């Protein structure tokens, strides 16, 4: 009996406890490598045991390295045996010389426990979420009943995005904000979609319910100004500028690329095609001029025209920039450090960097001042002549002959540029431009190919008549393949001379003779040499005229734009590893290839830039769609779903809504078919976007950065938008699109140019009032007001502009001539005779799209009266202040002061 009582007590007291303990043990989920282990390794271990350092022969960057034997001869991690793993032993060491991390604080008990459990569970090596394909996501189901506020959840939910947002808000016991007022949301939409305040008629139709919210959105998306707004963002990524950079920073005519970007956004060119054309438009079958212009994305790299620099060094620097920029822009991956060693945190190997570099290493540009290859734009009469030549080549030749002549007429490639000529004797290389040859001068084109041509084409400037040029195979003793006389030419000229036909590849030796010239006189400047196959049907009537037209076209002066062109196979470069990242220390040869950690390479893709572009936009690439979706979201909300928009990797911030990021990415590729317009529309159609941006203490305490999106976006406008908006509300903004960069007013003395007589010549007429996207951008001296409002110099890709608030910004909007002129016109256009209050109220409403409150009216009227008194004291003051009016009155001067103050308010400078 006593035993039964004891047993009953045992069952009553201890069995439930045992059940609880057993349940806890059984329900404990396995340790997740990606979310729990990788962050510890990255933050505490990998600086000494990763891509840069592998102390003790131990690395935690890649799986095979982590489980390999170390310098001690044993592995530091033994899967399934934490107690026997040296790594865990070192974490518990008391001796500071043996304990890991070395010379750093000991890991917490929780961190050590996680690592121990992970190893005991088998040390399964996971993959970071960003390198796994987006998985099909079910849209969360949320209840539609009324919340704690008068607004129902059903009022908030407008599309699937809102289900994801509301699900997260419910977890935090937060309610979404009510919708913003129509005038506020209309301004927000217009600024986000076209970058300008809304058109008055359009706004009125929307406010009067003549236009639905969706129709309002659709109308904005069809406006040409949409492309201008979104191009500004992309041009940051493309490092677009109107100058070459570096010390000389001479001008560059590349504005046609900017216009292509604007037009591509307006056409809603699918993002996969948008990508392919920019990375490899020249490699598409029979590329159009537009597709060639698109490749200028990678001709926005800087070009060093300074004397004494090594052309090959800066060509390599350009190739490296293209590789790094491609991965930053399309993959949210910082690849720069992999030039020297494997990535410290992400699964990209040192050797893979150079395999990727091989894709970019075969472009024809070579850091020359002329920036060839450049696409030529012939005048209509010139184009007629070009068409006759091409029709001949097409009629009498094969497809390859036609392509050769078309390419040579479009961008004059391939040619052997002089800066790679070797063994120059009795001559010199002339400052990144040409080889200078004297009497008995000579040089060698290494591994040249005469292409079985009957003619050699030379681009040169000759200073004497009667200069004999001899071309030989191999060297000075080689057989002569050409001998001809060159006469004086005052300017650069392309001419052709007969040679013996050969079909061999090898060194080509060039020598010059002119006994009538002085010993070291400059006979000629030789810029390039080329060999192209003959035009077919030499015996056909009209052949001589066509050939004459061909030379005439080659010498025609035309507008140009730099483009990408690939080397032919006989000029293909070899790509080698750089020892410790130095281009001067080359080791093993590599072939083009992509990182193993991302999507597999399809063998049907060509091993060039086109294949790389197809690999990037392959739907199995885990980063491309996520990157684009995240950055579009960032443009609209001021923060990305992954806040580190420049980096989606193991060191990035975790996504605030990972399921929604994947859902949007899959939808962007599949349902939207890579349409950026459809993606933008989906985001702005959501109830999340339509919310009021006002906050409250609880909301701010729980979510100060609006990571949960319980309120609408509130963002300071970008540099170009602030100026564009000022011009728009003042009625000054020009609708003119495209063309060369313009030079609006800026303070004197800002632009000081060396090496050329280029000046900032203030644009006249409507060019003075064009949108900021068209403002001429000189890298060493960007437009100062844009720079003050966080725009960059675009020397490298700008993934995210840093948003600052400084007193200099107020000084710009209060004093810059552009803002004074726009304030004057805002005041003048809204002036109501003999009614100061109405004048001020109208200026305020037209600038901010809000009604003026009594308190603000009182403050602004006080400012008006104070200003008016000052202007009345000094009769010359209005003329000195307002230089846009011949006889400004004190009243207009005071209203201008008020308008200037209005244009400095948060309501004006911020999207709310």
SSE inventory with pairings:
Elements: H1 2-13, H2 15-27, H3 33-45, H4 63-66, H5 86-92, H6 109-120, H7 153-156, H8 160-171, H9 182-193, H10 200-207, H11 213-222, H12 225-237, H13 255-267, H14 271-280, H15 289-294, H16 311-331, H17 350-360, E1 374-376, H18 380-396, H19 399-411, E2 416-417, E3 422-430, E4 434-449, E5 455-462, E6 467-473, E7 480-486, E8 489-498, E9 505-513, E10 524-530, H20 543-554, E11 560-562, E12 575-578, E13 586-590, H21 609-616, H22 624-637, H23 658-669, H24 676-685, H25 687-690, H26 697-702, E14 715-716, H27 719-729, H28 784-788, H29 807-815, H30 817-829, H31 836-848, H32 854-873, H33 877-881, H34 890-902, H35 906-909, E15 910-911
Antiparallel strand pairs: 1-11, 2-10, 3-4, 4-9, 4-10, 5-8, 5-10, 6-7, 6-9, 12-13, 14-15
Helix pairs in contact: 3-6, 9-11, 11-24, 12-13, 14-21, 16-17, 18-19, 18-20, 22-23, 22-24, 27-30, 29-30, 30-34, 31-34, 32-34
What can you tell me about this protein's structure?
It is built from 35 helices and 15 strands. By secondary structure, the protein is α+β, with helices and mostly antiparallel strands. Helices cover 41% and strands 10% of the residues. A hairpin with a 6-residue loop joins strand 6 and strand 7. The strands form 4 sheets. Strands 2, 3, 4, 5, 6, 7, 8, 9 and 10 form a 9-stranded antiparallel beta sheet that branches. The termini are far apart.
């Amino acid at each position: 009996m006593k035993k039964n009582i004891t047993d009953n007590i045992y069952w009553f007291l201890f069995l439930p406890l045992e059940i609880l303990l057993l349940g806890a043990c059984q329900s404990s989920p396995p340790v997740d490598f990606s979310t729990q282990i990788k962050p510890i390794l990255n933050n505490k271990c990998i600086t000494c045991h990763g891509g840069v350092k592998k102390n003790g022969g131990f690395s935690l960057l890649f799986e095979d390295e982590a489980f390999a034997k170390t310098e001690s001869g044993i592995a530091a991690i033994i899967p399934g045996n934490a107690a026997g793993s040296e790594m865990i032993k070192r974490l518990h060491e008391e001796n500071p010389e043996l304990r890991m991390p070395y010379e750093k604080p000991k890991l917490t008990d929780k961190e050590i426990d996680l690592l121990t459990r992970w190893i005991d569970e088998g040390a399964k090596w996971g993959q970071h979420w960003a390198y796994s394909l987006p998985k099909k996501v079910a849209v969360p189901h949320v209840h539609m009943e009324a919340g704690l506020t008068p607004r129902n959840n059903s009022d908030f939910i407008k599309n699937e995005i809102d289900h994801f947002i509301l699900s997260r808000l419910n977890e935090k016991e937060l309610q979404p904000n009510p919708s913003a007022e129509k005038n506020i949301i209309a301004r927000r939409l217009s600024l986000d979609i076209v970058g300008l305040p809304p058109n008055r008629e359009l706004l009125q139709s929307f406010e009067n319910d003549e236009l639905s919210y969706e129709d309002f959105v659709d109308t904005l998306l069809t406006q040409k100004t949409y492309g201008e707004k979104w191009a500004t963002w992309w041009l940051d990524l493309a490092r677009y500028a109107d100058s070459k950079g570096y010390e000389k920073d001479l001008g560059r005519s590349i504005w046609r690329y900017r216009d292509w970007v604007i037009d591509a956004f307006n056409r809603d060119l699918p993002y996969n095609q948008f990508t392919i054309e920019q990375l490899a438009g020249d490699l598409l079958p029979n590329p159009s001029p537009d597709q060639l212009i698109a490749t200028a994305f990678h001709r926005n790299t800087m070009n060093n025209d300074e004397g004494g620099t090594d052309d090959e060094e800066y060509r390599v620097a350009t190739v490296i920039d293209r590789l790094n920029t491609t991965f930053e822009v399309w993959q949210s991956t910082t690849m720069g450090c992999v030039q020297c060693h494997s990535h410290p945190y992400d699964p990209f190997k040192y050797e893979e960097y150079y395999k990727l570099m091989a894709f970019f290493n075969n472009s024809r540009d070579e850091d020359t001042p002329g920036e060839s290859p450049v696409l030529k734009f012939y005048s209509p009469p010139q184009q007629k002549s070009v068409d006759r030549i091409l029709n001949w080549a097409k009629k009498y030749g094969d497809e390859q002959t036609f392509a050769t002549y078309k390419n040579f007429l479009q961008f004059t490639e391939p040619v052997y540029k002089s800066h790679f000529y070797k063994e120059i004797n009795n001559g010199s290389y002339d400052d990144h431009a040409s080889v200078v040859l004297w009497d008995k001068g000579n040089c060698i084109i290494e591994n040249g190919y005469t292409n079985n041509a009957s003619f050699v084409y030379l681009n040169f400037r000759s200073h004497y008549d009667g200069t004999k040029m001899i071309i030989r195979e191999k060297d000075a003793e080689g057989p002569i393949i050409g001998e001809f006389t060159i006469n004086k030419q005052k300017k650069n000229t392309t001419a052709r001379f007969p040679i013996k036909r050969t079909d061999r590849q090898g060194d080509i030796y060039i020598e010059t003779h002119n006994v009538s010239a002085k010993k070291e006189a400059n006979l000629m400047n030789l810029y390039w040499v080329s060999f192209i196959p003959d035009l077919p049907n030499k015996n056909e009537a009209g052949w001589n005229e066509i050939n004459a037209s061909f030379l005439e076209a080659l010498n025609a002066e035309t507008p140009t734009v730099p483009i990408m062109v690939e080397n032919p196979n006989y000029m293909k470069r070899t790509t080698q590893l750089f020892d410790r990242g130095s281009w001067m220390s080359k080791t093993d040869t590599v072939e083009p290839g992509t990182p193993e950690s991302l999507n597999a390479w399809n063998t049907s893709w060509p091993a060039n830039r086109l294949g790389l572009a197809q690999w990037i936009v392959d739907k199995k690439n885990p980063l491309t769609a996520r990157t684009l979706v995240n950055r579009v979201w960032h443009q609209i909300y001021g923060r990305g779903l992954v806040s580190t928009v420049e980096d989606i990797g193991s060191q990035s911030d975790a996504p605030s809504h990972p399921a929604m990021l994947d859902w949007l990415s899959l939808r962007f590729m599949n349902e939207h078919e890579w349409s950026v317009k459809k993606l933008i529309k989906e985001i702005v159609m959501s109830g999340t976007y339509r919310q009021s941006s006002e906050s409250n203490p609880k909301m701010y305490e729980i979510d100060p950065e609006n990571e949960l999106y319980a309120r609408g976006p509130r963002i300071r406008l970008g540099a170009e938008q602030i100026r564009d908006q000022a011009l728009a509300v003042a009625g000054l903004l020009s609708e003119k699109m495209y063309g060369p960069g313009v030079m609006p007013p800026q303070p004197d003395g800002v632009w000081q140019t060396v090496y050329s007589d280029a000046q900032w010549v203030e644009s006249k007429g409507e060019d003075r009032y064009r949108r900021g996207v068209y403002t001429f951008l000189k890298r060493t001296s960007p437009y100062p007001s844009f720079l003050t409002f966080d725009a960059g110099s675009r020397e490298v890709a700008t993934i995210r502009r840093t948003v600052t608030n400084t007193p200099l910004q107020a000084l710009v909007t209060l004093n810059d001539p552009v803002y004074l002129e726009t304030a004057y016109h805002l005041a003048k256009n809204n002036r109501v005779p003999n009614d100061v209050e109405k004048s001020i109220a109208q200026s305020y409403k037209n600038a901010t799209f809000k009604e003026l409150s009594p308190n603000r009216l009182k403050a602004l009227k006080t400012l008006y009266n104070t200003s008016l008194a000052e202007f009345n004291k000094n009769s010359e003051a209005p003329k000195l202040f307002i230089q846009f009016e011949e006889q400004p009155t004190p009243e207009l001067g005071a209203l201008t002061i008020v308008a200037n103050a209005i244009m400095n308010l948060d309501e004006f400078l911020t999207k709310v």
